[in-house]
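Attaching the record inline, Q. Sequence:
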Amino acid sequence: MSISNIEKQKKEIPLLLYPPLIEAIFELHWELETDKQSGRMRDPTYPMMYGRLYERLKKNFPYTEDLPANQVHPEASPYVVRHRIRKEKMGYPLIQVGPGIATVNMAGAYSWTDFSTQILTLIETLTEVAALNFKKCELRYFNGVRVEQDSPLSFLLEKMHIKLELDSDLPEPNGVNLALSYPLQNPKGNLGLNVHLGQMNSNPAYLFQTQVISLGEWVPNDSSGFIPWLVGAHDALTKSFHSLCKGPLMDKFCGGT
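Structure, as predicted:
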């Protein structure tokens, strides 16, 4: 199962020999029941759904891991992943599952074709093992870029095309945390951008996340409906990444100096 024969890029994406990707994540939520007396939310399909899911996927994802949240009662930790299954021990891709939530995570040797195929496989398997009403879906990318100059604001302007102006009486900041959100029409939802000044390998770096989120009726409910959603979300995220990193950074990612 793949969307590579459906997706058509308007222009060829350059090969990134040195991609800044830290992790790519697809996250899916489904509706839970609310107990009228306690007010707690519960997933009536859990944990049986997780067992059935693993039985279907264990041929390709044989390694299992219980996460710390598994020590807490499921009704006390809705929408928190509790289990992880991996294709390779301690490697990627991996799938995480909990009450009302499932994710697909990829890092390292990233491929959009492989990533989207794993996403669609997860969705198809979930709909086979349980009757779920999906209520939120999200595709997000975490990237990291070293800050190779003294002024973090100058780096934002010159390398990432983000202009922040401060009064001349204020000193250069040693911390930056920027969050922006834009409405999207394809797919219906919101495009988010978060930029945070932190560290990567003990060096100053901008850690930035781009994400597409859809809620409620804008969330598809089967794998065929998710194909156009994934195509649109990936296209929006690709364009935002290229807009942020065009110029010297993109040249560097592609192998330039």
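The chain has two domains: 32-132, 141-257. Confidence is low (pLDDT under 50) at residues 8-12.

More tomorrow.
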